[in-house]
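The data layer described in this paper is built around a simple, fixed record for each protein. Such a record has a labelled line for the sequence and another for the backbone structure tokens. For reference, a complete record is included directly beneath this paragraph.
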Amino acid sequence: MLSTYLSSVLQALFSLDEFKERYAKEGEEHFEKCQEFPPDCFHCQLSKVAIGLWSGKHSVKKETKLKLVKGPDGELVEQGPQVANQ
């Protein structure tokens, strides 16, 4: 339940142009200049989320297929999913 709440909050925040500008567009620049340990830096962490949401790199669906193998009784059963070769 908490993860659903957090997801909703993040979606609402990143729908604001100012928030998107600060963390998505300026995030790469912040990574280069930041002097803090990244896991301890709030700006770094929000920039990672923003770049992940807005870059599209993490929303690519991987094609999967099931592999047919013989089961213990000799019948064919599906095993997988196996990631298809790219």
About this structure: The chain has a mean pLDDT of 81. DSSP finds four helices and two strands in the chain. Helices lie at 2-14, 17-25, 27-33, 42-55. The two ends are 36 Å apart (CA to CA).
